[in-house]
Amino acid sequence: MAGGAYTNLKQLMGLRQHARHISLLPQAPASSVNNGRRRTHLRGRGLDFAELRHYRPGDDIRCMDWHRTRRLGTPYVRVFTEERDRPVWLLVDQRPALFFGSRFQMKSVAAAELAALFAWHMIDHGDRVGGLVMGDQQSAHSTPSRSSATVTAWMERLVALNHGLHATRPQKTSGTALAEGIDHLARQVSHDGLVILISDFHDWDGHCLALLRRIGRNNSIIACHISDELERNITPAGTMVITDGQHQLQVDSRDTTVAARYSNDFNQHFEALQASCYREGIPLLTFDTGTSVVNQLQVHRPWSGQ
Asked: What are the C-alpha distances in Å from 198 to residues 9, 16, 201, 202, 222?
């Protein structure tokens, strides 16, 4: 994988060959000590109601509609057809906070690559894929479709928002909040779908949790958390200059008090997110910017994609 500060459409398109070889079957129970996640039953393909009709000899008695039968005095059965696909919604964070990385790639690039891997895998398995890319002041929305061309067009907009990120551009305090993106999906998602959130969750709060709880009543959810080594521990950085695009601050990370406070802030926020996901039965996958997300995704394999 290329890594770097920005992604491009050719790179995201090329991930399709890797998506075909990624197994999304469970490697261990979700309650395994190794992954620290609560056991969860993600909704998969099933049966869709097709019609209600008169009973015919040979019909499965388990499909009888007893309410209609009693009311009309004649036997009725409910007919179902196999569900051929499911809607998959990807929420991909491309806001300024993700334009950061100290080693292999930016968090924003890792998020884009994860989205592409999930999208191609789902498309190749017959699901409909769509979603929302959250930029600083703009977003890109796509209704779930099984068309590769539609998904490619959505990725083009993802790339455009990715290339709109710049370290020298001030971060707008009025930018889109994570809760706004989740709320947008909550209004679109109906039932029996899969929602995949890809973010660093830097502004995760109780509102986000309430919205996910609403989505999770009728849908499956997976959260993908992306972080960088320097976010977790700034000690190796030594003296550094931090900027938000407008102001600069010099920090000596060798100061143990400063380093400890920095790490504690990150850990407390992540543990709050982890605890929320655990309570709601949402698998929380962690990814690092230091290596290819393809290799990391092969390690996680959290649920059955079939």
From this structure: 18, 18, 8, 12, 9
- Residues 264 and 254: their CA atoms lie apart, in Å, by 15
Q: In the chain, how many domains are there?
A: 2
Identify the burial level of 25 via C-beta atoms within 10 angstroms of its C-beta, where 0-12 means exposed, 13-18 middle and 19 or more buried: exposed
In a domain, 237, yes or no: yes
**pTM beyond 0.70, yes or no:** yes
Does residue 115 register a pLDDT over 60?
yes
Q: What are phi and psi of 13, to 5 degrees?
A: -65, -40
- Residues 156, 233, single domain; the answer is yes
pLDDT in tens, 238-282: 776 766 566 776 776 677 787 888 889 999 999 999 999 999 999
Question: Looking at residue 276, which CATH number applies to its domain?
Answer: 3.40.50.410
